[in-house]
């Protein structure tokens, strides 16, 4: 745990990507009207949860007014509302909501992180930014106590799991509820991302998301 805490302290100090640094700090200064009285985090956002957990969840990057505001990925935004509610229903979290660090949320047998640690403009990191952040994810994965199931939220996360925990040949195609074997007896599960665009259009429903995490629990037994 101390090594992971040390890594997270280093992540938070990172300034490798000028565009991302400028954007995250601009958002933190200008704020959204609903959060104008809050102090934004405005720095890279490390992963969190149970480092010994059997389930690893990989997203894309912190949201500008979610993790970039609260300092914890998926905390305080609509995507997180969906994710944590599902994790609660499927037994991976102790409560269904998370609005701030220190709000009592605890993940059970589960760790959440992202391959890009800073909020990107339009939620679209550049390939160079993804690559600059890759060593942080490699170091983080090396310190986790052997997750056996990895859930990728979206195609970007799916590709990064295969890049960091693969390779797998032929390359498996992303899809909701897709499954693929990974080296070291791990299993990769795909889910549509919990973005507001996907949930508001019902491309992703609560039942679909719960189904992925129930399948993860089944594989972990």
How is this structure best summarized?
Helix content is 40%, strand content 11%. By secondary structure, it is α/β, with parallel strands linked by helices.
Count of folded domains? 1
Classification by helices and strands: alpha/beta
β-sheet strand percentage: 5-15%
Poorly predicted runs of 5 or more residues:
none
CATH topology: Uracil-DNA Glycosylase, subunit E
Radius of gyration: 16 Å
Taken from the alpha-carbon principal axes, the silhouette is globular
Q: How does this structure look, described?
A:
The chain has 221 residues and is of the alpha/beta class. The protein has 8 helices and 6 strands, in the order ααββααβαβαββαα. It has a single domain, classed as Uracil-DNA Glycosylase, subunit E (3-Layer(aba) Sandwich), CATH 3.40.470.10. 40% of the residues lie in helices and 11% in strands. Helix 1 packs antiparallel against helix 5 and helix 4 packs across helix 8. It is globular and about 45 Å long.
Summary keywords:
221 residues; alpha/beta; Uracil-DNA Glycosylase, subunit E; 6-stranded mixed β-sheet; 8 helices; 6 strands; globular
């Amino acid at each position: 745990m101390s090594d992971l805490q040390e890594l997270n302290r280093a992540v938070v100090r990172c300034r490798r990507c000028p565009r991302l640094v400028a954007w995250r700090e601009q958002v933190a200064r200008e704020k959204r009207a609903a959060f104008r009285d809050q102090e934004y985090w405005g720095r890279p956002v490390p992963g969190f949860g149970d480092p010994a957990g059997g389930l690893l969840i990989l997203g894309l990057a912190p949201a500008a007014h979610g993790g970039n505001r609260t300092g914890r990925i998926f905390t305080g935004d609509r995507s997180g509302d969906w994710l944590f509610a599902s994790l609660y229903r499927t037994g991976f979290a102790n409560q269904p909501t998370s609005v701030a660090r220190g709000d009592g949320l605890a993940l059970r047998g589960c760790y959440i992180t992202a391959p890009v640690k800073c909020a990107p403009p339009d939620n679209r990191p550049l390939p160079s930014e993804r690559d600059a952040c890759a060593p942080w994810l490699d170091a983080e994965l090396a310190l986790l106590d052997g997750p056996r199931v990895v859930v990728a939220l979206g195609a970007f996360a799916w590709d990064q799991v295969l890049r960091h925990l693969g390779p797998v040949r032929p390359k498996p195609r992303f899809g909701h509820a897709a499954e693929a074997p990974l080296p070291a007896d791990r299993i990769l599960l795909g889910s549509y991302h919990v973005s507001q665009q996907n949930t508001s259009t019902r491309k992703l429903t609560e039942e679909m998301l719960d189904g992925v995490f129930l399948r993860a629990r089944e594989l972990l037994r």
